[in-house]
Amino acid sequence: MKLAFYSLTSCEGCLTTLITKLGPDIEGLWNNFDIDYFKLVREPVGGSKFPKADIAFVEGAVVTNLDREHLLEIRKNSRFVVAIGTCASSGNIAYIASRNVKLGKKALSVLEVHEAEPLSSVIAVDFELNGCPVNADEFIDALLRLVNGLEPIQPDFSVCYQCKLAGNACLLDRGQLCLGPIAMGGCDAACTSVGSPCFGCRGPYVDADLKAYFRTLEKKGMKIEDAKPLLQMFMGKKIKEVLKE
Amino acid sequence: MMTMEYNPYLPRPASVNAVREESLETKTLRLSLINWRATFLPGQFVQLLLPGVGEAPFCITSSPSDPKHLELTIMRRGLVTTAAHYMRPGDAVGIRGPFGRPFPVESFKGKDLVIVATGIGIAALRSLILYTIENRNDFGDVTLLYGARFVEDLVYREELKSWAEKIKVIVTLSKPSEKWKGLKGRVTDHLDTIKLGENSLAVICGSPAVMVSVAKTLIEKGLEQKDVYLSMERHMKCGIGKCARCMIPGGFMVCKDGPVFSAGEINLEDVGE
Amino acid sequence: MAKLSWHEILGLITELQKRGFDVVGPSSEGGVVKLLPLEENTKLETNYVRTLNSPKDFLLPNKERLFRYKSTATVTSYGLKIRFPTVEGPCPITIVPEYSPPRGRIAFFGIHPCMVNSIRYLDKVMLSDPADPYYKARREGLFIAVLECDEGDEYCFCKSVGCEKVPNGYADLSIKKEGDGFVVTPRSPTGSSLLMEEGVEQIEETIPKMKEEYLFDAKDEKSIDLKDPANLLEDCTICSSCTVVCPTCYCSDIQDRFSLMDPSNVERIRTRMSCQRKSYSSIAGGVTFLRTKNERFKWRMKHKFPFSERMYGISGCVGCGNCIAFCPSRIDFRTFLGRRVA
Asked: What residues pair up with A64 in beta bridges, in sequence order?
């Protein structure tokens, strides 16, 4: 079974996370699958820059004209395309940032810089693994399900849920703006466990109720207007769709 | 050495003895139990563990007269069921159970049985059907009314013919092709053809909506609620009433209090949703 | 009965540890009081109303390994792709579950009566036939030192559900704050041996003062069905925190975890589940039985009250108020289920 790991415009943190966090599983990945390309680790096998793959994992947002061209090639050459990480699934910080600055399109001779988009704006994506960075355990689960021809499972719980399981005091109660109650979990409440509020890097979870969340904020004397920039920061295109409703 | 206490969470070994294709989406796995016997009655279920894939609950579809083998009829749906379709004779599996409350077959004796099944629901009733055939003299009239959408959906298509020699078998298709010469329509369209007497009781398994409408019709036609049995489906996890995943309205655990319930025990309105 | 200083109370903990107990008690950490293993650097907290976690987190821990098993499954070619070992002859290869019962006895030191009542509820659920072997192993030899509760906060309502007292046989020691010290009463032989006293004493338990009391109308399912929680739940984000902090929410999920590196080593893990999550009531084929937050909320209420009454004859709610106090929106079910009487 052939896998390929691509990187578009991003910090390459997701692939780095897979390399570092898979631990001994990275060896299993190497032994059990044919990895025909892994950005940072292995050059494309067999001459083409976009080798034929059963599953292509793509990190990064679509920002440049080259990103777009590469992504279309990846789609053509892969049976499944899985977006890994928040950049690929929602556009991440680049989504809102690129809309708030004037882009100097002629800054680089060969590159055109556009407003950042998630993969799903350009191609059909089979599955999105969220997170900034992606979670290695979720990656394994998703891979094993895809290998069996099944759709992977998105976490159906909030960051709040995992934050309480971790035994943390509520940051909202301390007056800190935190997106925990509506953000998709699966991260083991990594940020809130060290006292940093949740910015919702995985986007809203399946049952997220934004209206109820805003009411909760008001109840606590916080301003909805202060929450909106936070919502837009990581959730990119995803929150745009939710806010519209 | 300390004697090991019975741990219902630990699977016991079995191996795949044979695989039969039943319909487009269903296969029956015949399992040989390795160094243990399964004591069970029709209506009970087991947890099937596929090594390296996971576990899922399945009603036992074989007859209780053979405690060394279990048959499970599996429709391809999720991870475990998909993997089960790739099993080959000789493959090792694990079994937990049998769990659950069976059909009260002792109290069925001497009665006329109306068995109504739709789709894969017949799997949960096959054990009972085989039991009544094996102990044919213990029962009065036994009628199986079985509905499916297409011919290809019919499970146990070959077996139905041999069953028909011993019990009355009525098969109806709701979306038959032109070639189909048998009955058409849903099971509810043919309930009238079944004669119900004071001595009758009914057993139903199918989709929740069908079970409820069949149960209601039969009760309207004069059956008592306690004489109408339903086999419920939920995603049982632990199998012993500890994880509360299979809880249904009324606060019953399908794994422990069921999967067999009489219509008098549960609220049909709640179940049909 | 003995009057002990703070120092002597800590001495009791050390003595319990010497006797082989893992002592768990309330301690302040990160701005919240929670039950933690009391070790050298963990300070016992005796001035508290509630703890974020509860005894269930120790008796029925999240992500508990039930067993591990060996299989020779390997990931191979495309199509399906996980192949299974082949059994040839009678029984050469099989699944070998490895099971090690949990070790170490637990002592809860300084928990309030509501939490003791939650242990009683978990006992009813987990020890009813057939008993859960993992829970049973952890439960065996459990030591409980109850810290009597003087006064609850605005979220407490143990008296309204009849959980203000310690159930019979559920305490080894009773600890009551008095001035700078503590009055400690033995309530079991183990308790008296710890105090180096003889005999077991009956005491008049302190009944905690409640800020609010309620009369609930939740004995049967219909009474809950007839109520409409829509207004109450306007602020609910269905974050599921209520079920995490509840000392009696025991619903769990069972999963197999295996690594890519060594598919032959599989772990069966029991993790927490919540009725507030979509997957709790989803079955194969994509049907979800509890779709809206109203339905999920009612389900939680039903499980706590009528279902628990029917199955175990006691209330599934111990009135600790954790689900209200730790809810980001402070959603208060009490006025939904009944009315305030004091």
From this structure: A113
